[in-house]
Design goal:
This protein has 1 helix and 4 strands, in the order H-E-E-E-E. It is an alpha+beta fold. The protein has one domain. The strands form 2 sheets. The chain has a two-stranded antiparallel ribbon. Strands 3-4 form a two-stranded antiparallel ribbon. A hairpin with a 4-residue loop joins strand 3 and strand 4. This is Flavin reductase like domain-containing protein. It holds the Pfam family Flavin_Reduct. InterPro entries: Flavin_Rdtase-like_dom (IPR002563), Split_barrel_FMN-bd (IPR012349).
C-alpha cells in the first residue's frame, strides 16, 4: 500500500459510529464500534471499542 494513502486513510477517522467487518471465505461478519484509534502506522493497526456482550452478525 502506498504510504501516503495509508497515512491519509488513518488520519481521516473521526468520532462516530463505525461498522467493522471481516470476511473469511464466503462468511461475512459485522459489528458496530463507537470508538476507534490508530495504534500503529507500520503495520497499519487500529483498535476498536466493543461492548463485552456484543455479537458479530453473520
Amino acid at each position: 500500500m502506498d504510504p501516503a494513502v495509508k497515512k491519509q486513510a488513518l488520519r481521516t477517522f473521526t468520532y462516530g459510529l463505525y461498522v467493522v467487518m471481516s470476511k473469511e471465505d464466503e462468511v461475512v461478519n459485522a459489528f458496530t464500534a463507537n470508538w476507534l484509534t490508530q495504534v500503529s502506522f507500520e503495520p497499519a493497526l487500529v483498535a476498536v471499542s466493543i461492548e463485552n456482550d456484543a455479537d458479530a452478525a453473520d
